[in-house]
Amino acid sequence: MTYVDDFPGEARVVRTAFAVAFASIGLGGALGVLQALFRTGYSRSLFSAVDYYSVLTAHGVLMALVFTTFFIVGLFAWGVTRSLDTGFRDLRFTWGWLALMTLGTLLAFVSILGGIVGFIPTHAAVLYTFYAPLEASPTFYLGLALLVVGSWGAGVDYVLTLRDWRADNPDERIPLQTFMAVSTMLLWFVCTLGVAVEVVVFLLPWSLGLIPRVDPLLTRTLFWYFGHAVVYFWLLPAYFVWYTIFPKLSGGRLFSDPLARVVFVLFLVLSTPVGVHHQYGDPGLSQGLKFVQMTSTYFILLPSLLTAFTVVASMEHGARQRGGEGRFGWLRALPWENPSFSGIALAGLAFAASGFGGMVNAGLNVNALVHNTMWVPGHFHLTVGTAVALTFMAITYWLLPQLTGKRLRLRTLAAVQPYLWFVGMVFMSNAMHRIGLAGVPRRTSEPQYEQVIFNTPIASIGELHLQTVGGAFLLFASLLCFLAVVGSTWLGERGAKPLAVNGHIPSALSGPEHSPRVLDDFRVWVALTVLLLLIAYGPPLAAMVQNGLFAPGSAPIPA
Amino acid sequence: MTEHAPTPSDDAGDGDAATENDVWSRRSFVRYLAPVSIAIPIVVETETLVGLLQNDFGENSAWTQPTGVSVGIGGDLRPDLNTREKLQNAALEAVEDGRRLTLAVAVRNTTDAPYRLALGAVTTDGGETVEGGYTTDPVAPGETTSFTAEYVLPADATPASVETTVTIGNQPSERTVQLAPVPTQ
Amino acid sequence: MSDRRYSRRRFLRDASAVAATLGASTGLSAAASDPYGGWFTGDARGAATENYDGTTVDKTGQDAVTVQVGAQGNGGSYAYAPPAVKISPGTEVTFEWVSNTHDIQVESAPSGASWEGVDTIENEGYTHSHTFETAGVYKYYCTPHLSLGMKGAIVVGGSGGGGGGSTSPEWGEWFTDSARGGAVGNYDGSTVDKTGQDAVTVQVGADGNGGSYAYAPPAVKISPGTEVTFEWVSNTHDIQVESKPTGSSWSGVSSIENEGYTHSHTFETSGTYTYYCTPHLSMGMKGGIFVTGTSAAGGGGGGGGVLPDLNWWNVAWIAGPSVVAIPSILAYLLWDYHRAGAFDGLLGRGEAGPPPETPEAPPATPERELGHDEYDPWGTATLLAVYFVIISVAWALMYFVEFLGNGPHIFG
Amino acid sequence: MEIHRLEKIWIAVSLVFIVGLVASIVYGVAGMGVGTVGDTGQQLDPNALEETRFADPGGHWASDDHYVVTVVARQFLFQPGSQEPVMVPANTTVTLYVTSPDVVHGFDVVGTHLNAMVIPGQVTKLTTEFDEPKSYGIVCHEYCGAGHQSMAGQLVVVPADELPRNESGAAGNTSGANATSESATASADASPAVAPPEVSA
């Protein structure tokens, strides 16, 4: 039976979350193209160099905070209810947190818009990292706080549904998809503590004028306590898709269920005590602390490398079951014409390439080669921009028919879309990496200076700008294809033809019964996480707070 | 590419013939798109790697070029050309009717055509232009020469830029070069 | 019951929404001819001054005038208020700092003026006053906020002398007798406007100033990128450049030439150029070229040298396909909407009915079943081995060659 | 829980790779002395810079083989740097102290690996050495407000004897008053690795 027939109420919740996600990636994508045209100097008449920063904030918030969070809560809502085969306890509570998240998003977006249009009295050109002492309107901080609190509601919903299910099935292992969803949300609870304290205790009262000063280094460290773990909050749903759905799409079964659980536990424990690797260049943090957090950062490579093995092994298993032969011949037997499959395969390839970029960023001293240059946007457009976003788009082609009961339309357009995105991103990201090596700074509307020359080693700056814009065009074309397919499917006629997709997910080659039961006991892993956090973040935060919670403080400087 | 037996892939299972033939035969169309899409990053990344290696192990690597616009003592007056015009020394000393600026330049003609360097007027911080300068006689390919140009600036003026004209063969190339602050003797 | 008909109204609304997002709010560039020679527009140094609305506050006759430094404007507290003020000679102007981190750098002042502005960065509460004696136009800016358009100007009214040609903001006193060489006979106070034309000719040695000792027209206004050709129509004349904007490369004609000689130059940098003829300076053989406004050949982009060196091969293989992709997608979209009955409402077709159960496709049965024990992922192992080699080599190159091998480091 | 032997090999290879990465960083930091910005232990009130060493930004000789430059990064310029270049001697240990009175800025000397953040209330300390005369661009690479895109400057390396040594003379590019009012200048810095016992005012 199709999911929408089994859980109509839950299906509508997931559809609404996806609708907000697709609206924000549509708008965010359009702003992205405008930025590419502005930065490379092709068209400087669209907005002023000052408005660019409001557009950049909107692009960052819409793509990295809104699109990701809404799609994730929707995906997990489907995953939990499908794998536990039970609806949520009370749909009113579910609609409640979704409404809270949407309200927060609107509030934040309107605050950012105020920076561009005159008639809205707000301003929020502080980018999506909103470092103090640059100050945005209080509505911006309130909006982000509501978005986060709303997403906590989603986590509580999944945990309560799991508790009910375990009461009915005391000795059964937690189904894999629910295990992954709940461990990701536990990671989300732990890491959002940092940004919640920063916004609610410091920035919101500070921008309201209730407290005169905040310590920029303290608020910045609290942000990056959250800042790195959030990238795993985006990545783990993509791993959720790679582990549980991708094997089926390639015609095979998951290689090892226990290893998947170990990987998710490693991420839960190791994701948050590494945030300082975003602050290697910051004064006021000792090199010893940076070295310790660098070592745990490099150890986070392990679960990702394990994922690479398990996912590619499952893909190979599918290829061989489809009749693939030889050491590499099986690659040709894979369903490259199925957009759900090709999107995820290309996303995995992009993630492998971006892994190397991550190693360079994470090095204590080699970070100075690339810190805050265009290399960094080049890196994260490969990781969250392709590995996560392209996976989400690819799985939508498989999931949307089950959520709407409507057959996917424009399937040729859908078949082309992942390739267009992948090639566009290769051009843009490669140009960004190369221009970053020459030292061109990121987050700058017109990186042309009277006093500074950038010597790019291979191509000229002009050619790299052209390559960036070419990539941005391809990406926007691909985004239009995706929205066209989703839009026309949504408007299509329900039940006219049988679906082309099938929701059944085969069991793993080596099932959960082989793995130790302690894996399913989240209390142990949360306790270990908190312990590691105290070791990693206790001393630095204590040192900062020693000379006063707000000293040396800065008054707000509106941006 | 052997045409693969149409195994029932997850998505192609629909038997509805009407929709099948109205779109291009997806399988063959996409089978060529997949290898091309994976070949493109390999080509682009290989080109990047080769470029980086040439830059690191070749001569005048991009990493050794100056990234500041103004030329100081020891710098090359015309980094945009591959000939060498080294500002060996620059000094300001007080003289009776103002301050004398001396620019000592060493030139090496690395091209295969006769070469001439002409230093033109110096513009001071205040915007006044001081005439003077020096024009070398033609330097044969591979040869070097050096000279000293002198300017008399008003009492409290400091030099901001100097006009340079390099003529290779009969091709003049004019450029105003910003000067880093000149130490006073 | 989902509304099957995709009404035309909704389609238009979606299309207009997309257009609005991409719609451009083109900034108004004040191209109107303004007396400060483009100083307040984006063509001169720094950005356009938003808080300058084209009017000059007239404070002639008052002997004490105050200008606020760091008033609200240009995207924050980055403005002089009033930006342009006209005073009579001998007036004392007081500059009051009303916000932090500002200074006053004098861009240009009439020759002989003694005002040097404020060279150090000062904060709120600091004041600086100066009595302006010499007539002419004083232009000044704030170093840290020049790029936001924090610029100002003071016009000191013409002094008694200077017969034959009044002081005008573009030329100051160049054409009056208080400048070198005395008043220019054939200058009637008007500037010939030739903006927008690509080629302009100026006669050298036309008759005027008591003989063939004049440039005709003496004062001409052109757009950036215009080529001016000087034609010698009589003997023994040259062109010595008296003043030009910084960064301009025009050097006039330093040798005395005779009838028939021509010299042409393309004026790129906007601003005021003044020149004279050495032998006939004393008779008033002087001229001026004033470059302003948007250049004739399309809107000027931001900093120079921004557009890449486009060779067609580059444009073809990158931008070309994506520009082809977007229209073809829209065309395909329209065609498929039509096939899906989106325009049935228009055409009067379409029917309604309850949503039946939607059966899923049957699960795909694999060609052959592979259990856990019969399957060894050798392909995966090989692929990962290749990946391992690639990232190891790449790391060694990036860390030991690109990073440690190059350039000054931070000693830790 | 039985793991496939190929998977075991891959786990082992991954761990070796990770340890190798950490080892190469340790070699860089300990072996070649290439580190990053640390904690100088000095915090100052960003609104009262005039009582600190940043009252009169510029360069001066701390000892005969150690040149110290103090730079203030403020909204939309470097002092020194933007209006006149930062002057440093070649083949000499140079220490740059940078701070900001308003917002977070970036301090990136393009073409070198001097790349650090400047945070109000903290002091960024960069110790390095330039081997040949050359001029470098300085860029602020952290968004700092409406004029961020124009915030840049220059750092010019000149032969060591170009910069006058006598304390009384106008040192390098100390703008304004020439007497270095550095009361808190540390004693001669023996070696770059040892952080001078700076006492902030």
Automatic annotation (TrEMBL), chain A:
Which regions span the lipid bilayer? 17-38, 58-81, 93-120, 140-160, 181-203, 223-246, 258-276, 296-319, 340-360, 380-400, 412-432, 472-491, 524-545
User: Sorted alphabetically, which keywords does the UniProt record give?
Assistant: Membrane, Transmembrane, Transmembrane helix
Chain ranges of the Cytochrome oxidase subunit I profile domain: 32-486
**Which Gene3D superfamilies does the record cross-reference, listed alphabetically?**
Cytochrome c oxidase-like, subunit I domain
Do you know which InterPro entries this protein is assigned to? Ba3-like_Oxidase_I, Cyt_c_oxase-like_su1_dom, Cyt_c_oxase-like_su1_sf, Cyt_C_Oxase_1
GO annotation, biological process: aerobic respiration
GO CC, one annotated term: membrane
- The keyword Lipoprotein appears for this protein: no
Q: Which PROSITE patterns match?
A: COX1
A GO molecular function annotation here is: heme binding
For this entry, the protein name equals Cytochrome c oxidase subunit 1
Q: Which organism is it from?
A: Halarchaeum rubridurum
Q: Supply the source organism's classification.
A: Archaea, Methanobacteriati, Methanobacteriota, Stenosarchaea group, Halobacteria
TrEMBL record, chain B:
InterPro entries in UniProt: Ig-like_fold
Q: Which domain of life is it from?
A: Archaea
Gene3D superfamilies documented for this protein: Immunoglobulins
Which protein are we looking at? Uncharacterized protein
Species, as recorded: Halarchaeum rubridurum
Automatic annotation (TrEMBL), chain C:
For activity, the cofactor(s) needed are:
Cu(2+)
Name a GO molecular-function annotation.
Answer: copper ion binding
- Disordered: annotated span: 348-372
Name the residues that span the membrane: 312-335, 378-401
Cellular compartment(s)? Membrane
InterPro entries, per the entry: BlueCu_1, BlueCu_1_BS, Cupredoxin, Halocyanin, Plastocyanin, TAT_signal
The free-text note explaining how the cofactor binds reads: The crystal structure with reduced Cu(1+) has also been determined.
| PROSITE patterns on file | COPPER_BLUE, TAT
Spell out the GO cellular component terms annotated for this protein, sorted alphabetically and separated by semicolons: membrane
One Pfam family matching this protein? Copper-bind
Q: Which UniProt keywords apply?
A: Copper, Electron transport, Membrane, Metal-binding, Transmembrane, Transmembrane helix, Transport
Ranges of residues in domain Blue (type 1) copper: 69-156, 204-291
Please tell me where Cu cation binds in this chain.
237, 277, 280, 285
Q: Where is the composition biased (Pro residues)?
A: 353-365
Domain of life from the UniProt record: Archaea
NCBIfam families given in the database record: halo_cynanin (TIGR03102)
Query: Would you tell me the protein name for this molecule?
Result: Halocyanin-like protein
TrEMBL record, chain D:
Give start and end of each Cytochrome oxidase subunit II copper A binding domain: 64-169
* Stretches with biased composition (Low complexity): 168-201
Question: Which GO molecular function, any one, fits this protein according to its record?
Answer: cytochrome-c oxidase activity
Under Pfam families, the record lists: COX2
For whether the record's keyword set contains Transmembrane helix, the answer is yes
Q: Where is this region: Disordered?
A: 163-201
User: Where does the chain cross the membrane?
Assistant: 9-30
Q: Which InterPro entries match?
A: CcO_II-like_C (IPR002429), Copper_CuA (IPR001505), Cupredoxin (IPR008972), NosZ/Cyto_c_oxidase_sub2 (IPR051403)
- Where is this chain's protein located in or outside the cell? Cell envelope
Cellular component per GO, a single term:
membrane
Q: Which domain of life is it from?
A: Archaea
PANTHER family hit by this protein: CYTOCHROME C OXIDASE SUBUNIT II, NITROUS-OXIDE REDUCTASE
Name assigned to this protein: Cytochrome c oxidase subunit 2
Q: What is the lineage of its organism?
A: Archaea, Methanobacteriati, Methanobacteriota, Stenosarchaea group, Halobacteria
